[in-house]
Amino acid sequence: MRITQWDGEDGHAFDGCLAVERAAHQVDDPAGPPRSARELRAFLSGAGGETWFAAGDQDVPGWYRLSLPNRENLDLAWLALVMHPGHRRRGAGTMLLRHAAGRAAARGRSRLAARELLQGGAGAAFAAAAGAQAGVAEARRVLDVTRVPPGRFAGLRDGAARAAAGYALVTWTGEVPEEYLGGVAFVREALYDAPWDFEAGRWDAERVREEVNRRVARAGNQYYSVAAVHGATGQMAALTGLSVAPEVPEWGRQDPTMVARPHRGHRLGMLVKAAMLEWVATAEPGLRMIQTGNADGNAHMIAINDQLGYELLQPGWQFYTIDVAAIPAR
To answer: Is residue 28 included in any domain, yes or no?
Structure first.
């Protein structure tokens, strides 16, 4: 078995990686949303990282993506490693992990981190067996929009709007417009107030262009954004986003909802989330389920999701980290 770097063009290799992704999803997380082919291609070929796959005689047993932060957490490499269920427990996953550790070390990184491994699942068991340490746990929740009574989202939005006097909602689809880049950067700083095991990020308009807009463009999804703007200052105060893949129109993925520190206490989190759900219920007629996640300690956002009708989806997610030096080369 050989491990080969994907060049972003090899269609046969990508088809093999996609087959691994889909087989693993069917076994590990059949109740959760699948990733579309375009989303996977965008992930594997994104800037700031590298993708490698194991090549067998007939198929691709597994692959990994190494993503390298370039602003903070410079000692860290994010690792996503996916094995075909039919090739697990045969040593190929360990070969890929060792290879990834070597590549991370070559790029000057001393730690590997994995996010959103399913608690109690094959990925978490593999990480623990390798000696990785568990970090922040995150609960998953799903909302079945077909079961929500008519008018519920509008009622929650109206109630929040009364507490948010002086704020106005703005919306857009796709990439963040130029006039909102600075506001989005300001609000994204609030993301790191939630429980987080890593160095907090610092955002500016250029970073929003590079990371948010580039991701939206590459994934090819329909992307919705709702923000609250403070009328007296013009400052963006809250933001939420939601994406729907055209290949998987029945599933929506909720992005983090953020409220800037100076504007908390006005029910802005509920305001933007309820407005978003009211919007996509009409804009996406095929939408049925929406997935979101919250750190276990984020009681405020969990309470909002409960009011909106979200229910727990087990298992939840777990972060893991491991020192590169702890992974033997052979």
So the answer is: yes
